[in-house]
Amino acid sequence: MNSGLVSLEVVARINKVRIDVPNIVREHCISSDDIASDELVRIAKRLGLRAKKKNISLDKCHKKYPYPIIAQAKDDTFFVVLGYKEDEQSVLVYIPAEGATRSVAMEEYSQLTTDRYIILSHRLLSESVRFGLGWFFKEVINAKGIMAEILLASFVVQLFGLVTPLFTQVILDKVLVHRAMTTLKILAIGFIVIAVFEYVLNLARNYLFTHTANKMDAKLGAQLFRHLLSLPCPYFESRRVGDTIARVRELENIRNFVTNKTVSVIIDLVFSVVFVVVMLMYSMQLTFIVLGFVAAIGLLYLCITPELRRRLNTKFEMGAKSNSYLVESVTGIQTVKSLAIEGSIQRKWEDHLGHYVHSNFKMTNMSNITRGTAGFLQKLMTISILYLGVRLVLDNELTIGQLIAFNMLSGQFAGPVLRLIGVWNELQQTLLSVEKLSDILNHPSEIQSENAIVLNKLEGHVVFDNVQFKYAPDAPMVLNGINVKIPAGSCVGIVGRSGSGKSTVSKLIQRLYMPSSGSVRIDDVDINHVSPIWLRSNIGVVLQENYLFSGTIKENIVMGAPNASMDLVLHVAKVTGVHDFVSRMPKGYDSEVGERGEGLSGGQRQRIAIARALITDPRILIFDEATSALDVESELIIRRNLHHIAKGRTMFIIAHKISIVKKCTVILAMDNGELVEAGTHDELMRIPNGYYKKLYTLQECID
């Protein structure tokens, strides 16, 4: 028994959070042994609970946190603390191993626990909340304690910035005039002490900042990838791979803006006011000159915003196209070399790269011109301050030290203000990043009923009830009025011309797509109401082209059942012919398959894919042209074992070769999205001028 998952289930149900333990076990590849507390916290967060680990006494925990909480025992198992009665000195606990709730005295409890707890509370945020900058600021607020420390440290560092102008003024007006060397020594020592303190404070602030930013990166990156995996297949099929990758990378830009600029904007706003007040104490005339030039620079940045936004968007689009073409070219490198089209591929790449470089040049050029103009105005401001300031010194309204100090203060004022103005430009980049990333995060996940059903056991009875389907609202109908009932344990062959809708039927059974009308039912339950993860974990699928992941042969076989024993691995490997070639490899099942399985032949990859589908012992098995890539020997092994493979499960064999489906319980003949004939091979062959008979005759002629 996994006491951690049982404890989490108890707490989740008390918090009215829906939890499906079997799905969690499959999703997180959890064994029957107890999981680590870190993994338990991660699963709790995945469920939408706020979760954190605490090393704390029960007395303090009782005063700070609501029940129930999960406690870790000295033997590293978990149990639930439901309450604590101080007057009776007893604790109400639920211990999974006992399967019951009981009250234990504090003495017994202290012997049981390690004072390590997992604190859980209600859902953080509704899934209906749309993605935007607020999504990130929520994470900043969650780290409000650390952010407050960073703000305080930044505030003190900025205060030290006032020291240098004042120090310079005192030296010029007091030390030099009165030759006060003792005062100079005291000032120098004081300045060094302040500089050292500022250095240490900056180190601490930067450490906290980096630590917080990295934690936020990890958390938001995990949330983004989790949502990406939950998106339906049509999302990926309607977008280029490079475009999706480019959108994911925008997360870094947004996080950097929210964490770095949030603090700097607050500090700069506060100190802009502070510097203005201090400058007004020196000279009102000079202060108005500074404010006038700063306003002109601000107006300049405001005017270029629409054009800057347009150029940023163009740069992103060109970059996404370049990424997509690069991924496409590298993925299809064998085809490129086979066709000897390196030259044309290079020319197209240079075209894409040229467009990207040109768009980047136009954006950078605009930024450079704007920055240069702002720098020119800043120099004019300095000249104006010195020109008018000298006249004020000559009129004895200012001392030389005060003029120099004011000039330094004006620079320190202009710096934060210019940073604030610069933030406006960065905000445009960030808003564009939010817009691009929201295409992923605001796209709805796979449709799942709030009360998704998990059946106790899948039998494999499949019904298509007047199913119609098209891939897009304005697309032609792919399936039209499909009505068929498949009893559990049947072996179903599906044949037809290319584009007749055979593979679409298998995708609807897996709930990769939803019918446009009608319903698909498994064991008399509409699959729209069934958990898609649970459903797919009970369906094995082998395609014509299967994807193998980097790792060993064994790792690829047990991907859907990570706790499978080696005996089971050997069993499915022998049934599918994998063992024949693996036994000849020096490292056996620990042999690396390479990226996408490139280290293996097409037939070997296909046999591993079939073994991977069988390892979970699915109740429904789908072969979608699964044997077309096999050599004659491998196909013979699969055909010989087909009866054993199909035993006890409903099997769908989609094939162009009719010889493979001849012995199926029922054969479905499809044409133009319609089910035109259904029956056994002999029944269909008796239909005069039948569609199936025609296909069979044509193949016999070819053979």
TrEMBL record:
InterPro entries: AAA+_ATPase, ABC1_TM_dom, ABC1_TM_sf, ABC_transporter-like_ATP-bd, ABC_transporter-like_CS, ATPase_T1SS_HlyB, P-loop_NTPase, Peptidase_C39. Residues 1-120 form the Peptidase C39 domain. Keywords: ATP-binding, Cell membrane, Membrane, Nucleotide-binding, Transmembrane, Transmembrane helix, Transport. GO terms for biological process: protein secretion by the type I secretion system; proteolysis. CDD domains: ABC_6TM_CyaB_HlyB_like. It is found in: Cell membrane. One of its GO terms (cellular component) is type I protein secretion system complex. Its main location: membrane. Residues 462-697 form the ABC transporter domain. The keyword Secreted does not apply. SUPFAM superfamilies: ABC transporter transmembrane region, P-loop containing nucleoside triphosphate hydrolases. GO terms for molecular function: ABC-type transporter activity; ATP binding; ATP hydrolysis activity; ATPase-coupled lipid transmembrane transporter activity; peptidase activity. The keyword Transport applies. The chain crosses the membrane at residues 150-172, 184-201, 263-282, 288-308. It is a multi-pass membrane protein. Residues 150-429 form the ABC transmembrane type-1 domain. This is ATP-binding cassette, subfamily B, HlyB/CyaB. It comes from Halodesulfovibrio aestuarii.
